[in-house]
Please model this.
Amino acid sequence: MKRFYLLKLICFVLVVTSTISYAQIIPIGVENLKPRFTNTSGLFTQEVNPEYGIGSSVAQDGTGYYASDDFLLPQTAKISSMEFVGYQMRDNLENLYNGAVLYIYEDDNGKPAGIPGKTGTPVYTLDLAKDDPNLTFTKVESLVYSFLVQTPDFTAQANKKYWVVFAPKVNFSVKFDYWEMWNWFNSINFSGSDAMNIDPDNFFGAGLTYWLSITEMTGGEFGDALKGMAMNLNGESLATNEISMNNDGVVYPNPAVDNINIRIGKQNSVNKLEIFDTNGRLVKTVENSTSADVSNLVPGVYTVTITFGDGNRVTKKLIKK
Model:
């Protein structure tokens, strides 16, 4: 009978040496769990391995302990959502989580080209509150929790490696208490580089302030079991003409606070920007400009319709903070 295991990383064991070389597997008596994605189809899927998981959470003060894994698609695709499944030992994450963060980085020689809140610039990032419409939280079963993150306006280029960093924001009773930590499940299948983890602020004092392969950290003791993280990427591959149009009219920054800009790509002009609220009501119009002041808009989700000089139109989602 399969048992469920908690991987206690260096942050959860007293192994503070000049190098990180060991982790412990601690069995707990929870049997017959079958963690799964709520959406079973995707452009890229690494299936859940219910025997192992890696801590990945952000505390109330913004300090994070992160896990990351890479993906690569054979065709350019618009990623509409990403789903992550993990577990929490206290089994009360629904009472403690307060949102989530998502970072997507380019590759830097087999590791993410940046560290959240420290170095590098992600190609895409979301900082979501608990009630954000782009974040869906599901208690899949006892101990097991899924986060489905909508990713508006993110396009992954063909044959380009990206790194995904995901962590829920948790209101810990004791900072990074491992009973309250959300642990991202490893995967039974993997591709590309080894999954990695990092403690950017050195909270646990082990010096893990750089991205390190989890497999390397554990000395390869668990074979391939820790090389991938469970994730499901949803969306659709783009035809050549769709790729061209998708690269026009990108709205940034997104989420936005004060102003937005429009990347026009091959288009030589923008005739009009129209911003609609969730009820379809037109709330702002800007003509002959690739930027707009949105500071007076109420925080929420909006639709931006961009009309180009040649008459073509694209519609983009905007999150106003």
Remarks:
- Residues 1-31 have pLDDT under 50 and may be disordered.
- The domain at 250-320 is CATH 2.60.40 (Immunoglobulin-like).
- The CA atoms of residues 84 and 231 lie 5 Å apart.
